[in-house]
Design a protein that fits this description.
By secondary structure, this protein is of the alpha+beta class. The chain folds into 3 domains: about 1-260, no CATH class; about 280-525, tricorn interacting facor f3 domain (Immunoglobulin-like, Sandwich), CATH 2.60.40.1730; about 535-610, no CATH class. It contains 22 helices and 19 strands. The protein is elongated. Keywords: Membrane, Transmembrane, Transmembrane helix.
Protein backbone atom coordinates (compact mmCIF):
# COMPACT_ATOMS: atom_id res chain seq x y z
CA UNK A 1 0.00 0.00 0.00
CA UNK A 2 2.85 2.37 0.86
CA UNK A 3 4.47 1.65 -2.49
CA UNK A 4 1.21 2.34 -4.34
CA UNK A 5 0.78 5.64 -2.49
CA UNK A 6 4.35 6.58 -3.36
CA UNK A 7 3.70 5.78 -7.01
CA UNK A 8 0.53 7.90 -6.97
CA UNK A 9 2.46 10.77 -5.41
CA UNK A 10 5.18 10.45 -8.06
CA UNK A 11 2.68 10.40 -10.95
CA UNK A 12 0.82 13.42 -9.60
CA UNK A 13 4.10 15.35 -9.43
CA UNK A 14 4.85 14.36 -13.04
CA UNK A 15 1.40 15.57 -14.03
CA UNK A 16 1.92 18.94 -12.34
CA UNK A 17 5.24 19.34 -14.19
CA UNK A 18 3.32 19.25 -17.48
CA UNK A 19 0.92 22.21 -17.11
CA UNK A 20 -0.26 21.85 -20.70
CA UNK A 21 -2.61 19.06 -19.63
CA UNK A 22 -3.91 21.04 -16.67
CA UNK A 23 -4.71 23.93 -19.03
CA UNK A 24 -6.35 21.64 -21.61
CA UNK A 25 -8.52 19.93 -19.00
CA UNK A 26 -9.63 23.24 -17.44
CA UNK A 27 -10.33 24.84 -20.84
CA UNK A 28 -12.34 21.79 -21.92
CA UNK A 29 -14.61 22.15 -18.86
CA UNK A 30 -15.14 25.85 -19.56
CA UNK A 31 -15.97 25.20 -23.22
CA UNK A 32 -18.35 22.37 -22.34
CA UNK A 33 -20.36 24.71 -20.12
CA UNK A 34 -20.12 27.98 -22.05
CA UNK A 35 -20.77 26.78 -25.62
CA UNK A 36 -23.99 24.78 -25.09
CA UNK A 37 -25.35 27.02 -22.31
CA UNK A 38 -28.23 28.29 -24.48
CA UNK A 39 -29.62 24.75 -24.58
CA UNK A 40 -29.51 24.26 -20.81
CA UNK A 41 -33.03 24.52 -19.41
CA UNK A 42 -33.34 21.38 -17.33
CA UNK A 43 -31.00 18.89 -15.67
CA UNK A 44 -32.29 16.24 -18.08
CA UNK A 45 -30.60 18.14 -20.91
CA UNK A 46 -27.22 16.68 -19.89
CA UNK A 47 -27.33 13.81 -22.45
CA UNK A 48 -27.45 16.44 -25.22
CA UNK A 49 -23.85 17.32 -24.29
CA UNK A 50 -22.81 14.13 -26.07
CA UNK A 51 -20.62 15.88 -28.67
CA UNK A 52 -18.69 17.80 -26.02
CA UNK A 53 -18.19 14.66 -23.94
CA UNK A 54 -16.94 12.89 -27.08
CA UNK A 55 -14.31 15.61 -27.50
CA UNK A 56 -13.22 15.14 -23.89
CA UNK A 57 -12.84 11.41 -24.57
CA UNK A 58 -10.62 12.24 -27.55
CA UNK A 59 -8.56 14.43 -25.24
CA UNK A 60 -8.15 11.49 -22.84
CA UNK A 61 -7.18 9.18 -25.70
CA UNK A 62 -4.39 11.60 -26.61
CA UNK A 63 -3.45 11.90 -22.94
CA UNK A 64 -3.08 8.12 -22.66
CA UNK A 65 -0.97 8.06 -25.82
CA UNK A 66 1.20 10.87 -24.48
CA UNK A 67 1.69 8.90 -21.26
CA UNK A 68 3.07 5.99 -23.28
CA UNK A 69 5.16 8.34 -25.44
CA UNK A 70 6.58 10.05 -22.33
CA UNK A 71 7.64 6.69 -20.91
CA UNK A 72 9.33 5.62 -24.14
CA UNK A 73 11.05 8.95 -24.69
CA UNK A 74 12.50 8.90 -21.16
CA UNK A 75 13.20 5.13 -21.20
CA UNK A 76 10.97 4.68 -18.15
CA UNK A 77 9.73 1.38 -19.50
CA UNK A 78 13.22 -0.13 -19.38
CA UNK A 79 13.94 1.36 -15.96
CA UNK A 80 10.71 0.05 -14.45
CA UNK A 81 11.23 -3.40 -15.96
CA UNK A 82 14.39 -3.82 -13.87
CA UNK A 83 12.69 -2.83 -10.62
CA UNK A 84 11.36 -5.46 -8.17
CA UNK A 85 8.02 -3.68 -7.92
CA UNK A 86 7.34 -3.38 -11.66
CA UNK A 87 3.84 -4.83 -11.38
CA UNK A 88 2.96 -2.55 -8.47
CA UNK A 89 4.14 0.42 -10.50
CA UNK A 90 1.89 -0.59 -13.39
CA UNK A 91 -1.03 -1.09 -11.01
CA UNK A 92 -0.31 2.31 -9.49
CA UNK A 93 -0.42 3.78 -12.97
CA UNK A 94 -3.97 2.47 -13.42
CA UNK A 95 -4.98 3.89 -10.05
CA UNK A 96 -3.43 7.23 -10.99
CA UNK A 97 -5.36 7.36 -14.27
CA UNK A 98 -8.58 6.54 -12.46
CA UNK A 99 -7.81 9.30 -9.93
CA UNK A 100 -7.08 11.86 -12.66
CA UNK A 101 -10.25 10.87 -14.54
CA UNK A 102 -12.41 10.96 -11.43
CA UNK A 103 -11.00 14.30 -10.27
CA UNK A 104 -11.70 15.81 -13.68
CA UNK A 105 -15.18 14.24 -13.72
CA UNK A 106 -15.96 15.53 -10.23
CA UNK A 107 -14.92 19.10 -11.11
CA UNK A 108 -16.89 18.88 -14.36
CA UNK A 109 -19.96 17.47 -12.62
CA UNK A 110 -19.91 20.02 -9.78
CA UNK A 111 -19.40 22.86 -12.28
CA UNK A 112 -22.43 21.76 -14.30
CA UNK A 113 -24.61 21.42 -11.20
CA UNK A 114 -23.45 24.80 -9.92
CA UNK A 115 -24.34 26.36 -13.26
CA UNK A 116 -27.86 24.94 -12.99
CA UNK A 117 -28.34 25.79 -9.33
CA UNK A 118 -26.82 29.26 -9.09
CA UNK A 119 -26.90 30.73 -12.60
CA UNK A 120 -30.04 29.17 -14.07
CA UNK A 121 -31.59 28.76 -10.61
CA UNK A 122 -32.99 25.36 -11.56
CA UNK A 123 -33.65 23.20 -8.53
CA UNK A 124 -34.03 19.44 -8.44
CA UNK A 125 -34.89 16.73 -5.96
CA UNK A 126 -32.42 14.39 -4.26
CA UNK A 127 -33.66 11.50 -6.43
CA UNK A 128 -32.85 13.56 -9.54
CA UNK A 129 -29.36 14.24 -8.19
CA UNK A 130 -28.84 10.51 -7.62
CA UNK A 131 -30.04 9.72 -11.16
CA UNK A 132 -27.75 12.39 -12.59
CA UNK A 133 -24.73 11.21 -10.63
CA UNK A 134 -25.16 7.54 -11.60
CA UNK A 135 -25.68 8.44 -15.26
CA UNK A 136 -22.70 10.77 -15.52
CA UNK A 137 -20.52 8.35 -13.54
CA UNK A 138 -21.14 5.64 -16.16
CA UNK A 139 -21.29 7.88 -19.23
CA UNK A 140 -18.60 10.44 -18.35
CA UNK A 141 -16.11 9.22 -15.75
CA UNK A 142 -15.75 5.58 -16.80
CA UNK A 143 -15.31 6.43 -20.53
CA UNK A 144 -12.68 9.06 -19.59
CA UNK A 145 -10.77 6.39 -17.66
CA UNK A 146 -11.18 3.81 -20.43
CA UNK A 147 -10.04 6.31 -23.08
CA UNK A 148 -6.79 6.87 -21.19
CA UNK A 149 -6.07 3.13 -21.13
CA UNK A 150 -7.00 2.74 -24.81
CA UNK A 151 -4.70 5.62 -25.82
CA UNK A 152 -1.84 4.13 -23.80
CA UNK A 153 -2.32 0.66 -25.32
CA UNK A 154 -2.52 1.97 -28.90
CA UNK A 155 0.68 4.01 -28.63
CA UNK A 156 2.47 1.13 -26.93
CA UNK A 157 1.59 -1.09 -29.90
CA UNK A 158 2.24 1.57 -32.57
CA UNK A 159 4.82 4.02 -31.16
CA UNK A 160 4.96 6.59 -33.96
CA UNK A 161 3.06 9.56 -35.36
CA UNK A 162 0.63 7.34 -37.31
CA UNK A 163 -0.75 6.16 -33.97
CA UNK A 164 -2.59 9.46 -33.60
CA UNK A 165 -4.45 8.84 -36.85
CA UNK A 166 -5.32 5.37 -35.57
CA UNK A 167 -6.57 6.94 -32.32
CA UNK A 168 -8.92 9.23 -34.25
CA UNK A 169 -10.29 6.25 -36.20
CA UNK A 170 -10.77 4.21 -33.04
CA UNK A 171 -12.34 7.22 -31.31
CA UNK A 172 -14.80 7.57 -34.16
CA UNK A 173 -15.77 3.88 -33.97
CA UNK A 174 -16.20 3.62 -30.20
CA UNK A 175 -17.97 6.92 -29.59
CA UNK A 176 -21.77 7.41 -29.52
CA UNK A 177 -21.43 9.10 -32.91
CA UNK A 178 -21.03 5.64 -34.42
CA UNK A 179 -24.35 4.56 -32.89
CA UNK A 180 -25.98 7.49 -34.67
CA UNK A 181 -24.59 6.50 -38.07
CA UNK A 182 -24.56 2.74 -37.57
CA UNK A 183 -21.26 1.88 -39.27
CA UNK A 184 -21.01 -1.06 -36.88
CA UNK A 185 -24.22 -3.13 -36.42
CA UNK A 186 -26.02 -2.22 -33.20
CA UNK A 187 -25.77 -5.73 -31.78
CA UNK A 188 -21.96 -5.40 -31.80
CA UNK A 189 -21.49 -1.64 -31.81
CA UNK A 190 -23.34 -1.08 -28.53
CA UNK A 191 -20.76 -3.25 -26.74
CA UNK A 192 -17.90 -1.19 -28.15
CA UNK A 193 -19.33 2.28 -27.57
CA UNK A 194 -17.42 4.16 -24.90
CA UNK A 195 -20.31 6.42 -23.93
CA UNK A 196 -24.10 6.35 -24.19
CA UNK A 197 -25.08 3.69 -26.78
CA UNK A 198 -28.70 4.88 -26.88
CA UNK A 199 -28.18 8.60 -27.19
CA UNK A 200 -30.21 9.08 -30.38
CA UNK A 201 -33.11 6.94 -29.20
CA UNK A 202 -33.45 8.43 -25.74
CA UNK A 203 -33.39 11.98 -27.08
CA UNK A 204 -35.78 11.39 -29.98
CA UNK A 205 -38.04 8.55 -28.75
CA UNK A 206 -37.59 7.22 -25.23
CA UNK A 207 -38.14 10.11 -22.84
CA UNK A 208 -38.32 7.75 -19.87
CA UNK A 209 -34.89 6.30 -20.66
CA UNK A 210 -33.11 9.66 -20.50
CA UNK A 211 -30.27 9.45 -17.95
CA UNK A 212 -31.28 5.91 -16.99
CA UNK A 213 -28.49 3.36 -16.58
CA UNK A 214 -29.99 0.01 -17.52
CA UNK A 215 -28.55 -3.31 -16.43
CA UNK A 216 -26.86 -3.76 -19.78
CA UNK A 217 -24.67 -0.73 -19.04
CA UNK A 218 -23.23 -2.49 -16.00
CA UNK A 219 -22.46 -5.58 -18.06
CA UNK A 220 -21.00 -3.56 -20.94
CA UNK A 221 -18.74 -1.50 -18.69
CA UNK A 222 -17.54 -4.68 -16.96
CA UNK A 223 -16.94 -6.22 -20.39
CA UNK A 224 -14.77 -3.28 -21.49
CA UNK A 225 -12.96 -3.11 -18.15
CA UNK A 226 -11.93 -6.77 -18.30
CA UNK A 227 -10.69 -6.46 -21.88
CA UNK A 228 -8.73 -3.24 -21.30
CA UNK A 229 -7.17 -4.37 -18.02
CA UNK A 230 -6.19 -7.72 -19.57
CA UNK A 231 -4.55 -6.01 -22.55
CA UNK A 232 -2.80 -3.47 -20.34
CA UNK A 233 -1.57 -6.21 -18.01
CA UNK A 234 -0.27 -8.37 -20.86
CA UNK A 235 1.59 -5.37 -22.29
CA UNK A 236 3.16 -4.00 -19.12
CA UNK A 237 3.22 -6.54 -16.27
CA UNK A 238 6.02 -9.01 -15.60
CA UNK A 239 4.08 -12.29 -15.67
CA UNK A 240 4.92 -15.95 -15.71
CA UNK A 241 3.55 -18.23 -18.42
CA UNK A 242 0.69 -19.42 -16.24
CA UNK A 243 -0.33 -15.84 -15.55
CA UNK A 244 -0.21 -14.89 -19.22
CA UNK A 245 -2.22 -17.94 -20.29
CA UNK A 246 -4.76 -17.21 -17.58
CA UNK A 247 -5.15 -13.64 -18.80
CA UNK A 248 -5.54 -14.81 -22.40
CA UNK A 249 -8.27 -17.23 -21.30
CA UNK A 250 -9.98 -14.46 -19.32
CA UNK A 251 -9.75 -12.20 -22.36
CA UNK A 252 -11.32 -14.85 -24.60
CA UNK A 253 -14.01 -15.48 -22.01
CA UNK A 254 -14.86 -11.79 -21.79
CA UNK A 255 -15.26 -11.63 -25.57
CA UNK A 256 -18.12 -14.12 -25.21
CA UNK A 257 -20.06 -11.91 -22.77
CA UNK A 258 -22.14 -10.18 -25.50
CA UNK A 259 -23.35 -13.58 -26.71
CA UNK A 260 -24.64 -15.02 -23.46
CA UNK A 261 -25.47 -11.95 -21.35
CA UNK A 262 -29.23 -11.68 -20.58
CA UNK A 263 -28.81 -7.90 -20.52
CA UNK A 264 -27.59 -5.73 -23.38
CA UNK A 265 -26.84 -2.00 -23.28
CA UNK A 266 -28.76 -0.98 -26.39
CA UNK A 267 -32.46 -0.38 -26.80
CA UNK A 268 -33.00 -2.63 -29.76
CA UNK A 269 -35.75 -0.81 -31.63
CA UNK A 270 -37.26 -3.47 -33.89
CA UNK A 271 -40.93 -2.56 -33.72
CA UNK A 272 -43.18 -4.62 -36.02
CA UNK A 273 -46.88 -4.18 -35.29
CA UNK A 274 -46.90 -1.75 -32.40
CA UNK A 275 -48.94 0.91 -34.21
CA UNK A 276 -51.71 2.49 -32.20
CA UNK A 277 -53.54 3.35 -35.44
CA UNK A 278 -56.20 0.84 -34.53
CA UNK A 279 -57.92 0.52 -37.89
CA UNK A 280 -54.71 -1.18 -39.08
CA UNK A 281 -54.68 -3.80 -36.31
CA UNK A 282 -56.28 -6.48 -38.47
CA UNK A 283 -55.07 -6.35 -42.04
CA UNK A 284 -55.94 -9.75 -43.50
CA UNK A 285 -57.95 -11.65 -40.90
CA UNK A 286 -61.72 -11.49 -41.35
CA UNK A 287 -63.47 -10.79 -38.07
CA UNK A 288 -66.39 -13.17 -37.67
CA UNK A 289 -69.31 -11.55 -35.88
CA UNK A 290 -70.26 -14.64 -33.89
CA UNK A 291 -66.60 -15.17 -32.94
CA UNK A 292 -66.67 -11.93 -30.96
CA UNK A 293 -69.90 -12.69 -29.07
CA UNK A 294 -68.42 -13.40 -25.66
CA UNK A 295 -67.51 -11.65 -22.43
CA UNK A 296 -64.17 -11.61 -20.63
CA UNK A 297 -63.68 -10.84 -16.96
CA UNK A 298 -61.52 -11.46 -13.90
CA UNK A 299 -58.10 -11.00 -15.49
CA UNK A 300 -55.25 -12.29 -13.32
CA UNK A 301 -51.78 -11.32 -14.62
CA UNK A 302 -48.24 -12.28 -13.68
CA UNK A 303 -46.06 -9.78 -15.55
CA UNK A 304 -42.26 -9.95 -15.72
CA UNK A 305 -40.28 -7.03 -17.08
CA UNK A 306 -36.88 -8.39 -18.15
CA UNK A 307 -34.99 -5.05 -18.06
CA UNK A 308 -33.39 -5.56 -21.46
CA UNK A 309 -34.35 -4.25 -24.89
CA UNK A 310 -38.11 -4.66 -25.42
CA UNK A 311 -38.38 -7.86 -23.39
CA UNK A 312 -41.45 -8.56 -21.29
CA UNK A 313 -43.49 -11.69 -20.60
CA UNK A 314 -46.71 -12.45 -18.83
CA UNK A 315 -49.15 -15.17 -17.92
CA UNK A 316 -52.82 -14.24 -17.75
CA UNK A 317 -55.91 -16.12 -16.62
CA UNK A 318 -59.29 -14.90 -17.90
CA UNK A 319 -62.84 -16.03 -17.27
CA UNK A 320 -64.72 -16.36 -20.55
CA UNK A 321 -68.40 -16.84 -21.27
CA UNK A 322 -69.13 -17.39 -24.97
CA UNK A 323 -72.14 -18.04 -27.19
CA UNK A 324 -70.06 -20.07 -29.66
CA UNK A 325 -67.10 -22.40 -29.29
CA UNK A 326 -65.05 -20.65 -32.00
CA UNK A 327 -63.84 -17.27 -30.76
CA UNK A 328 -61.32 -14.62 -31.76
CA UNK A 329 -59.13 -12.58 -29.41
CA UNK A 330 -57.15 -9.47 -30.26
CA UNK A 331 -53.45 -9.55 -29.35
CA UNK A 332 -50.67 -7.68 -31.12
CA UNK A 333 -48.34 -9.90 -33.13
CA UNK A 334 -45.45 -8.39 -31.16
CA UNK A 335 -46.56 -10.61 -28.29
CA UNK A 336 -45.68 -14.17 -29.21
CA UNK A 337 -48.07 -16.66 -27.66
CA UNK A 338 -46.19 -19.52 -26.02
CA UNK A 339 -49.14 -21.49 -24.72
CA UNK A 340 -52.94 -21.35 -24.38
CA UNK A 341 -54.95 -23.56 -22.07
CA UNK A 342 -58.67 -23.81 -21.37
CA UNK A 343 -59.54 -25.14 -17.93
CA UNK A 344 -55.89 -26.34 -17.67
CA UNK A 345 -56.07 -28.30 -20.94
CA UNK A 346 -54.11 -27.33 -24.05
CA UNK A 347 -56.12 -25.96 -26.96
CA UNK A 348 -55.05 -25.34 -30.54
CA UNK A 349 -54.91 -21.78 -31.80
CA UNK A 350 -53.73 -19.61 -34.68
CA UNK A 351 -52.16 -16.21 -34.01
CA UNK A 352 -51.72 -13.98 -37.03
CA UNK A 353 -52.54 -10.42 -38.07
CA UNK A 354 -53.00 -9.53 -34.40
CA UNK A 355 -55.86 -12.03 -34.01
CA UNK A 356 -55.90 -15.27 -32.02
CA UNK A 357 -58.44 -17.78 -33.34
CA UNK A 358 -59.19 -20.72 -31.07
CA UNK A 359 -61.89 -23.29 -30.46
CA UNK A 360 -63.16 -23.73 -26.89
CA UNK A 361 -64.10 -27.21 -25.61
CA UNK A 362 -66.80 -25.54 -23.48
CA UNK A 363 -68.66 -22.24 -23.62
CA UNK A 364 -67.73 -21.22 -20.07
CA UNK A 365 -64.39 -21.55 -18.32
CA UNK A 366 -60.93 -20.11 -17.79
CA UNK A 367 -58.40 -19.27 -20.50
CA UNK A 368 -54.74 -19.30 -19.47
CA UNK A 369 -52.43 -17.58 -21.95
CA UNK A 370 -48.65 -17.18 -21.78
CA UNK A 371 -46.99 -14.60 -24.03
CA UNK A 372 -43.72 -12.75 -24.40
CA UNK A 373 -42.35 -9.98 -26.55
CA UNK A 374 -38.93 -8.83 -27.72
CA UNK A 375 -40.18 -6.25 -30.21
CA UNK A 376 -42.98 -4.21 -28.62
CA UNK A 377 -41.73 -0.67 -28.92
CA UNK A 378 -43.53 0.63 -25.82
CA UNK A 379 -41.24 -1.47 -23.61
CA UNK A 380 -37.69 -0.34 -22.82
CA UNK A 381 -34.98 -1.54 -20.41
CA UNK A 382 -36.05 0.62 -17.45
CA UNK A 383 -39.53 1.80 -18.47
CA UNK A 384 -42.67 0.83 -20.34
CA UNK A 385 -46.07 2.14 -21.40
CA UNK A 386 -48.86 -0.42 -21.48
CA UNK A 387 -52.12 1.41 -22.13
CA UNK A 388 -55.68 0.13 -21.90
CA UNK A 389 -56.73 1.07 -25.44
CA UNK A 390 -54.14 -1.12 -27.16
CA UNK A 391 -54.28 -4.96 -27.31
CA UNK A 392 -51.00 -5.70 -25.58
CA UNK A 393 -53.17 -8.13 -23.60
CA UNK A 394 -56.00 -10.40 -24.88
CA UNK A 395 -59.19 -8.44 -25.53
CA UNK A 396 -62.24 -8.57 -27.75
CA UNK A 397 -61.35 -7.41 -31.30
CA UNK A 398 -64.33 -5.04 -31.25
CA UNK A 399 -62.87 -3.31 -28.21
CA UNK A 400 -59.42 -3.19 -29.83
CA UNK A 401 -60.88 -1.52 -32.92
CA UNK A 402 -62.86 1.04 -30.95
CA UNK A 403 -62.35 1.01 -27.17
CA UNK A 404 -64.49 4.13 -26.81
CA UNK A 405 -67.63 2.56 -28.26
CA UNK A 406 -67.00 -1.06 -27.32
CA UNK A 407 -65.07 -0.88 -24.06
CA UNK A 408 -66.22 -2.92 -21.07
CA UNK A 409 -65.39 -2.69 -17.39
CA UNK A 410 -63.51 -5.78 -16.18
CA UNK A 411 -61.82 -6.69 -12.93
CA UNK A 412 -58.05 -7.02 -12.84
CA UNK A 413 -55.47 -8.44 -10.50
CA UNK A 414 -51.90 -7.88 -11.66
CA UNK A 415 -48.73 -9.18 -10.05
CA UNK A 416 -45.65 -7.28 -11.20
CA UNK A 417 -42.02 -8.31 -10.84
CA UNK A 418 -41.35 -4.81 -9.49
CA UNK A 419 -43.56 -1.84 -8.61
CA UNK A 420 -40.84 0.81 -8.43
CA UNK A 421 -41.78 3.94 -10.45
CA UNK A 422 -45.05 2.32 -11.60
CA UNK A 423 -48.18 4.42 -12.14
CA UNK A 424 -51.51 2.82 -13.01
CA UNK A 425 -55.26 3.32 -13.33
CA UNK A 426 -55.73 0.46 -10.83
CA UNK A 427 -55.23 0.42 -7.09
CA UNK A 428 -51.79 -0.48 -5.74
CA UNK A 429 -52.57 -3.19 -3.18
CA UNK A 430 -49.01 -3.92 -2.01
CA UNK A 431 -45.42 -3.90 -3.20
CA UNK A 432 -46.05 -6.14 -6.19
CA UNK A 433 -49.81 -6.25 -6.74
CA UNK A 434 -52.34 -4.09 -8.59
CA UNK A 435 -56.07 -4.64 -8.51
CA UNK A 436 -59.35 -2.98 -9.40
CA UNK A 437 -61.92 -2.49 -12.13
CA UNK A 438 -61.32 -0.49 -15.30
CA UNK A 439 -61.90 -0.29 -19.04
CA UNK A 440 -58.61 -2.12 -19.45
CA UNK A 441 -55.37 -1.88 -17.43
CA UNK A 442 -52.91 0.94 -17.94
CA UNK A 443 -49.46 0.39 -16.42
CA UNK A 444 -46.78 3.03 -16.83
CA UNK A 445 -43.24 2.63 -15.52
CA UNK A 446 -41.16 5.76 -15.51
CA UNK A 447 -41.01 9.32 -14.27
CA UNK A 448 -44.64 10.47 -14.38
CA UNK A 449 -46.43 13.22 -12.50
CA UNK A 450 -50.06 13.49 -11.37
CA UNK A 451 -52.10 16.65 -11.02
CA UNK A 452 -55.88 16.82 -10.76
CA UNK A 453 -57.08 14.27 -13.33
CA UNK A 454 -53.91 14.45 -15.44
CA UNK A 455 -51.16 11.83 -15.53
CA UNK A 456 -48.21 12.99 -17.60
CA UNK A 457 -44.43 12.61 -18.16
CA UNK A 458 -42.00 14.76 -16.18
CA UNK A 459 -40.87 16.47 -19.41
CA UNK A 460 -44.31 17.89 -20.25
CA UNK A 461 -45.88 20.99 -18.72
CA UNK A 462 -49.51 20.87 -17.61
CA UNK A 463 -50.28 23.93 -19.77
CA UNK A 464 -49.17 22.04 -22.88
CA UNK A 465 -51.50 19.16 -22.02
CA UNK A 466 -54.46 21.47 -21.53
CA UNK A 467 -53.83 23.10 -24.90
CA UNK A 468 -53.58 19.68 -26.52
CA UNK A 469 -56.78 18.49 -24.85
CA UNK A 470 -58.63 21.62 -25.99
CA UNK A 471 -57.43 21.10 -29.55
CA UNK A 472 -58.58 17.47 -29.49
CA UNK A 473 -62.04 18.43 -28.26
CA UNK A 474 -62.32 21.14 -30.91
CA UNK A 475 -61.51 18.51 -33.52
CA UNK A 476 -64.12 16.16 -32.04
CA UNK A 477 -66.69 18.96 -32.22
CA UNK A 478 -65.82 19.57 -35.89
CA UNK A 479 -66.13 15.87 -36.70
CA UNK A 480 -69.46 15.68 -34.85
CA UNK A 481 -70.78 18.55 -36.97
CA UNK A 482 -69.74 16.91 -40.22
CA UNK A 483 -71.11 13.48 -39.28
CA UNK A 484 -74.20 14.74 -37.42
CA UNK A 485 -72.90 12.70 -34.49
CA UNK A 486 -72.84 13.46 -30.80
CA UNK A 487 -69.82 11.56 -29.48
CA UNK A 488 -68.17 13.23 -26.50
CA UNK A 489 -65.43 11.33 -24.61
CA UNK A 490 -65.69 12.18 -20.94
CA UNK A 491 -61.93 12.19 -20.32
CA UNK A 492 -62.41 11.73 -16.59
CA UNK A 493 -58.71 10.93 -16.62
CA UNK A 494 -56.21 12.30 -19.13
CA UNK A 495 -53.09 10.19 -19.63
CA UNK A 496 -50.23 11.60 -21.67
CA UNK A 497 -48.04 9.08 -23.48
CA UNK A 498 -44.52 9.37 -24.87
CA UNK A 499 -44.57 6.45 -27.32
CA UNK A 500 -48.09 6.42 -28.84
CA UNK A 501 -48.36 9.32 -31.32
CA UNK A 502 -52.14 9.17 -31.53
CA UNK A 503 -55.29 10.00 -29.65
CA UNK A 504 -57.36 7.17 -28.22
CA UNK A 505 -60.07 6.91 -25.60
CA UNK A 506 -62.32 4.58 -23.69
CA UNK A 507 -65.47 5.67 -21.80
CA UNK A 508 -63.48 7.00 -18.82
CA UNK A 509 -59.95 7.81 -20.05
CA UNK A 510 -58.35 9.79 -22.85
CA UNK A 511 -54.82 9.17 -24.07
CA UNK A 512 -52.96 12.11 -25.58
CA UNK A 513 -49.53 12.17 -27.17
CA UNK A 514 -46.99 14.41 -25.42
CA UNK A 515 -46.44 16.67 -28.43
CA UNK A 516 -49.47 18.78 -29.32
CA UNK A 517 -47.84 19.72 -32.63
CA UNK A 518 -48.38 16.19 -33.96
CA UNK A 519 -51.50 16.12 -36.15
CA UNK A 520 -53.88 13.70 -34.47
CA UNK A 521 -57.01 14.57 -36.46
CA UNK A 522 -57.08 11.38 -38.50
CA UNK A 523 -56.34 9.30 -35.39
CA UNK A 524 -59.27 10.91 -33.58
CA UNK A 525 -61.54 10.13 -36.52
CA UNK A 526 -60.49 6.50 -36.94
CA UNK A 527 -59.99 5.60 -33.27
CA UNK A 528 -63.17 7.15 -31.87
CA UNK A 529 -65.73 7.17 -34.69
CA UNK A 530 -65.00 4.10 -36.80
CA UNK A 531 -65.44 0.47 -35.80
CA UNK A 532 -63.02 -1.16 -38.21
CA UNK A 533 -63.69 -2.89 -41.49
CA UNK A 534 -62.75 -1.39 -44.85
CA UNK A 535 -63.33 2.32 -44.40
CA UNK A 536 -60.65 3.55 -46.82
CA UNK A 537 -63.11 4.97 -49.37
CA UNK A 538 -65.14 6.67 -46.67
CA UNK A 539 -62.01 8.17 -45.11
CA UNK A 540 -60.83 9.44 -48.49
CA UNK A 541 -64.16 11.21 -49.04
CA UNK A 542 -64.41 12.49 -45.46
CA UNK A 543 -60.85 13.89 -45.48
CA UNK A 544 -61.32 15.33 -48.98
CA UNK A 545 -58.27 13.51 -50.34
CA UNK A 546 -59.94 11.22 -52.89
CA UNK A 547 -58.25 13.18 -55.70
CA UNK A 548 -54.78 13.14 -54.16
CA UNK A 549 -52.29 11.00 -56.06
CA UNK A 550 -51.08 9.18 -52.93
CA UNK A 551 -54.63 8.13 -52.04
CA UNK A 552 -55.36 7.20 -55.66
CA UNK A 553 -52.34 4.89 -55.63
CA UNK A 554 -53.39 3.43 -52.26
CA UNK A 555 -56.98 2.78 -53.38
CA UNK A 556 -55.84 1.17 -56.64
CA UNK A 557 -54.34 -1.66 -54.61
CA UNK A 558 -57.87 -2.60 -53.52
CA UNK A 559 -60.05 -1.38 -56.39
CA UNK A 560 -59.73 -1.35 -60.17
CA UNK A 561 -58.87 1.90 -61.93
CA UNK A 562 -62.32 2.24 -63.51
CA UNK A 563 -64.00 2.13 -60.09
CA UNK A 564 -61.69 4.81 -58.71
CA UNK A 565 -62.22 6.95 -61.81
CA UNK A 566 -66.02 6.74 -61.50
CA UNK A 567 -65.94 7.64 -57.81
CA UNK A 568 -63.61 10.58 -58.47
CA UNK A 569 -65.75 11.77 -61.36
CA UNK A 570 -68.97 11.78 -59.32
CA UNK A 571 -67.16 13.34 -56.38
CA UNK A 572 -66.19 16.34 -58.52
CA UNK A 573 -69.78 16.83 -59.68
CA UNK A 574 -71.34 16.83 -56.24
CA UNK A 575 -71.75 20.02 -54.24
CA UNK A 576 -70.28 20.37 -50.78
CA UNK A 577 -73.74 20.00 -49.26
CA UNK A 578 -74.40 16.80 -51.21
CA UNK A 579 -71.07 15.34 -50.12
CA UNK A 580 -71.89 16.13 -46.49
CA UNK A 581 -75.28 14.45 -46.82
CA UNK A 582 -73.69 11.28 -48.22
CA UNK A 583 -70.98 11.26 -45.54
CA UNK A 584 -73.63 11.48 -42.83
CA UNK A 585 -75.68 8.72 -44.49
CA UNK A 586 -72.71 6.34 -44.79
CA UNK A 587 -71.67 6.97 -41.22
CA UNK A 588 -75.16 6.59 -39.76
CA UNK A 589 -76.06 3.44 -41.71
CA UNK A 590 -72.69 1.70 -42.12
CA UNK A 591 -70.21 3.52 -39.84
CA UNK A 592 -68.01 4.14 -42.84
CA UNK A 593 -67.80 0.57 -44.18
CA UNK A 594 -69.34 1.54 -47.49
CA UNK A 595 -68.48 -0.57 -50.54
CA UNK A 596 -67.34 0.93 -53.83
CA UNK A 597 -70.53 -0.23 -55.57
CA UNK A 598 -72.75 1.29 -52.88
CA UNK A 599 -70.77 4.53 -52.97
CA UNK A 600 -71.10 4.83 -56.74
CA UNK A 601 -74.83 4.07 -56.60
CA UNK A 602 -75.43 6.63 -53.83
CA UNK A 603 -73.41 9.24 -55.70
CA UNK A 604 -75.38 8.62 -58.87
CA UNK A 605 -78.67 8.95 -57.00
CA UNK A 606 -77.54 12.09 -55.20
CA UNK A 607 -76.33 13.66 -58.44
CA UNK A 608 -79.62 12.78 -60.15
CA UNK A 609 -81.52 14.59 -57.39
CA UNK A 610 -79.71 17.75 -58.38
Amino acid sequence: MIILLSILKYEIKQFLRRPIWIVLFIVSIIFCIVLPRENFTDIYDLPSMVYFVMCINLLYLFYGAEEARFEQRNYLDEQVRNLPYQNKYRLGKLLYWSLISFTYYLIFFVSILSYYLFYLQVGFALSTFQTTFVYTFFIWFIPFFFSTIIGYILYSLLPNISCYLLIIIVWFLIMPYNSMLGFIPTSLGAWLINGDPNITKVISVYDMEIMKVNRGYYVQRSFMLIILVCLYTLLTFNLKKVGRYSLVLLLLFSLCIPYFSPFVPQINNRQTNSNIGQKNFFTETVLLEKATDYTLNNYIFDINHHYSKHNLSYKVKINVSADNSDIQLALLDDFKVKDIKFNNKNVTYIHQDNIIALSLPELHGEITLTAETETYDAIAPTSYELIATTPWYPMNPKEALNPYKNGNVESYQINLSELSSVTTNLEIANDQKLQGEAYGPTILKGNYKEKDNYLYPYSVEIEEIQINKERVFNEIENINDRLAANLAPSCESVIVTTLYPAFSANPSECYLYKNEDINQSNNIFTNVYLNGGDTSLFEAIFNNVIEHESWQNYLKREYDEETITRITSYYKRLSEEQRTQLIQKWYKEMEGTVSAEQMIQDMEDKYAEG
